[in-house]
Amino acid sequence: MAxxxxxxxxxxxxxxxxxxxxxxxxxxxxxxxxxxxxxEGLAVRGWYEExxxxxxxxxxxxxxxxxxxxxRVDSLAGRAGVDNTMRVHTKFGEYLGxxxxxxxxxxxxxxxxxxxxxxLDDVWDLFIQPETSTGMYAWSLMLVWVLMSxxxxxxxxxxxxxxxxxxxxxxxxIILATHHAVTIGRHGRYNAWFDVMWIFLCIIAVxxxxxxxxxxxxxxxxxxxxxxxxxxxxxxxxxLTIAKDxxxxxxxxxGQFTWLSTSKxxxxxxxxxxxxxxxxxxxxxxxYVIRELGDYTSxxxxxxxxxxxxxxxxxxxxxxxxxxxxxxxxxxxxxxxxPIMGILRELGDRSDSRPVRLIYGNRTIEQMMFLEEFDTxxxxxxxxxxxxxxxxxxxxxxxKGFIDTQVISRAIDHPEHDCxxxxxCGPPIMVKAVAKNxxxxxxxxxxxxxxxxxx
Length: 455
Ligand SMILES: Cc1cc2nc3c(=O)[nH]c(=O)nc-3n(C[C@H](O)[C@H](O)[C@H](O)COP(=O)(O)OP(=O)(O)OC[C@H]3O[C@@H](n4cnc5c(N)ncnc54)[C@H](O)[C@@H]3O)c2cc1C
Description:
Layout: H1 19-38, H2 47-70, H3 74-80, H4 82-114, H5 116-128, H6 130-150, H7 159-184, H8 186-190, H9 192-221, E1 225-232, E2 237-244, E3 257-261, E4 272-275, E5 285-291, E6 308-315, E7 327-333, H10 337-349, E8 355-362, H11 371-380, E9 382-389, E10 399-400, H12 405-411, E11 420-426, H13 428-440, E12 448-452
Parallel strand pairs: 7-8, 7-11, 8-9, 9-10, 11-12
Antiparallel strand pairs: 1-2, 1-6, 2-5, 3-4, 3-6
Helix pairs in contact: 1-2, 2-4, 2-9, 3-4, 4-5, 4-6, 5-6, 6-7, 7-9
């Protein structure tokens, strides 16, 4: 078996940015307008006014930065991983919601303390006075749109309809909020450049949405794919294979994901993210493991060979690249076997000599995929397989229950396991539980990489 080091893995186009680095950049960008406001030389007021001013500036810049996080632009999402940028988008979107919803109340709070009977009138005035009304319209829309995001699953809207509404609503909110900031903001009143900055950032935010809806599809249309085959790979999963439909460059690294759209028009936003289950050596073909879950995934059996399919990607940093692990532990739950299989196949293609441990969990034996291929891979790799079933059949020799510390401890019983990397993929709830189990076993966070099948 050839010894394999990271240098033999596919070239990394850029070194992926860690989640922590992304958070630092995010906080720096969000704080920048407030830091700049200090160079304006305005007199410092009481601590409460300064706090409200700080929160207002932070709120607007967070709102504007939400658009950059969502835009799948290479300079940010390409480096940090679109899954990570989406995670920050979702997490900080919630904090932003609280911040903005508190905003008018923070402004009138001193009145509530000094003259409570007039304070509610003051809130009402904020709605009707021309100089504050756009802010209050933005605030009201924000209230509805934040609730729509928090209760996304309960709105009854399809994901696509929800997404259109989300984009359109937030464009309206950002325009109204920017108008509010430049009308009423104290900093812009003294220094016009502060207002120019907000307007400029607002234009960029709107342009990023137009980019996603109109410019990016044009690039996707230049690289069409077609369906090769779609069959049931397990009781609940499809195994979809597509291929390039033309002569163009396309490459990816095992473990990445793409958005797929089977709509007629490339401009349709009906697209779903799925991780690639094949290794790059299978190109021009690409395969996916897709679990039947809802409207879209349960209709995949209707796909016809030759039918065209649009692909946006590859995205994501759930890969072997730029790592120096002495061993690899792959932990898959359900359809999470997709990218894990991509990585395993890649290791097999390279006859990697490092210890590889696969812990693969499902509810029932009928949901297990690739059992024969694992046997073949065992002849190429130092691969140990640990199957886990919640509802095992009689005579099942694997582990019963979940991917717990017991089965993980067995799999990593090796003197060098401190220098191994751990790749987790599955539904968010499974990823969180397994990551917790790894932490209980004192596995360093730096050694854990994960992909959740959901943002
Ligand atoms: C990075 C990433 C990689 C993924 N890889 C795989 C994979 O390899 N195999 C697999 O089976 N599943 C994967 N998923 C999950 C998959 O995208 C959803 O299961 C699928 O989109 C569900 O669509 P549906 O209409 O059938 O189900 P629905 O019942 O409509 O949706 C179920 C849930 O999936 C999410 N979802 C639905 N549509 C979208 C969308 N267009 N974009 C983002 N999320 C959506 C929503 O949270 C929704 O609540 C991945 C998700 C992400 C974020």
